[in-house]
Amino acid sequence: MLKSTFHLLAPAALAALLAGASAVSAEEVEIPVGAQGKETYVEDMRGLKKDEVNARLGEPLGIQGPVGDPAITRWEYQDFYVYFEWDTVLHTVRKPQG
């Protein structure tokens, strides 16, 4: 009788122990607003042509490419990159901060 009671209580005891352990290991991290860095908004320009991007954002700081087939070109702006396939925007990617 004692043996069967132990088998019923063991899973419940293990579950209670694991639940308590996860609550103990939780940690809240707070980062002061001044240390979070500035938020850079990069609008979705997917599908625009190079001349449309140039009209919206101005001349890029630098241009790399084209490389490969299809030809991929990267335009660099202060806070982000714009990637083109041939003449059409594929993605805008924010530069890493820090």
Fold topology:
Blueprint: H1 2-25, H2 50-57, E1 62-67, E2 72-76, E3 80-85, E4 88-94
Antiparallel strand pairs: 1-2, 2-3, 3-4
Keywords:
single chain, 98 residues, alpha+beta, 2 helices, signal, Lipoprotein SmpA/OmlA domain-containing protein
Give the mean pLDDT.
77
What is the CA–CA distance across the termini? 64 Å
Structural class, please?
alpha+beta
Strand content: 15-25%
State the shape.
elongated
Tally of individual helices: 2
Give me the count of strands. 4
What sequence of helices (H) and strands (E) makes up the elements?
HHEEEE
**Rg, alpha carbons:** 27 Å
Main sheet summary: 4 strands, antiparallel
Question: What level of helicity do the residues show?
Answer: 25-40%
Keywords: Signal
Protein name: Lipoprotein SmpA/OmlA domain-containing protein
Signal peptide: 1-26
Describe the structure.
The structure is a single chain. The mean pLDDT is 77. The chain has helices at residues 2-25, 50-57, and strands at 62-67, 72-76, 80-85, 88-94. It has a domain at 37-94. The longest helix has 24 residues, at 2-25. The N and C termini lie far apart (64 Å). A four-stranded antiparallel β-sheet has the order 1-2-3-4, with no helix packed on it. The chain is of the alpha+beta class. The protein has two helices and four strands. Helices cover 33% and strands 24% of the residues.
Question: Can you summarize this structure?
Answer:
Keywords: Signal. The chain is an alpha+beta fold. It has helices spanning 2-25, 50-57, and strands spanning 62-67, 72-76, 80-85, 88-94.
